[in-house]
Amino acid sequence: MVELTETFVLECEELDRDHKRLVEMVNEIAENIDKGETSKCNNKVTEFVNFAKKHFDREEKFLERNSYPD
After folding, report:
1. Is the dihedral of CA 22, 26, 32, 38 positive or negative?
2. Residue 68: CA atoms inside 13 Å, Cβ hemisphere, count?
3. What's the pTM?
4. CA 19 from chain center: how many Å?
């Protein structure tokens, strides 16, 4: 299982909430694989990819607004 460590905490509620959800989603997928219920993974992986795209767009905008280098 994946754990959200303090190194991922940005003290930005929206992004921190996203990080938590991304970890939850990865763990849900891993749990289904471990249980041999891989047929449940198709939708979950698609959901994860779509959420990740939205998250990284939000995160890039946050970093730009805060003049984070590169």
Report:
1. positive
2. 9
3. 0.85
4. 5
